[in-house]
Amino acid sequence: MPKHGKKYEEAAKLIEANKLYETEEAIELAKKTASAKFDETVEVAIKLGVDPKHADQQVRGAVVLPHGTGKTKTVLVFAKGEKAKEAEAAGADFVGADDLVAKIQGGWTEFDVAVATPDMMGTVGRLGKVLGPKGLMPNPKVGTVTLDVTRAINEIKAGKIEYRTDKAGNIHAPIGKTSFDNAKLIENFQTLVDVLNKVKPAAAKGQYMRSITVSTTMGPGVKVNPLKVSTKR
After folding, report:
1. Long-range contacts for 2-6 (Cβ within 8 Å, ≥24 apart)?
2. What is d(CA 12, CA 213) in angstroms, rounded to the nearest whole number?
3. pLDDT, position 7
């Protein structure tokens, strides 16, 4: 078993290992356990009662957190002509077409999110092996393949995050920073939970939200009662 540092061990003492906390208390505890010198990210891990091996049980999409994530994302847009001008006007950090494709093929990936207009996907598709593994490939399911590039850029800059079940049916997502007020973290948390409830696959059986854990970048996990969270609105 890997050993944790003294700060982690001290933080873990604040948490009752088998207790399921209310959302408000869990977030407060998570913030108290943050011991790093930087502004740690507050993260949520949610175990869903789905089997991602089946296409009809995969959970994937995007949500705009009302208070953002505390991180400004660098946005790249693949577009030509008027759409390229629109992207520049909307505040995209990088805009281009074949020139950007060539640059990325050369190994450059200094951006957080890629957006593309539908007409560019034939060209952008050549970057699948580069962008796919990094989670940077534009995808219509999360709103990054679109003609409305202004809206896409504005949402990303405002705090849009993507969520996707891993092989074990878990969702991992940031909901802000430890410097955020508790109320903002709670609202971001509940917004994510509400969206996941709305996109629950019809094929999912039994309890949908199996477990929820809140933690900071360097801190221990705090378990949240999934039954109480999933019934809130």
Report:
1. none
2. 14
3. 66
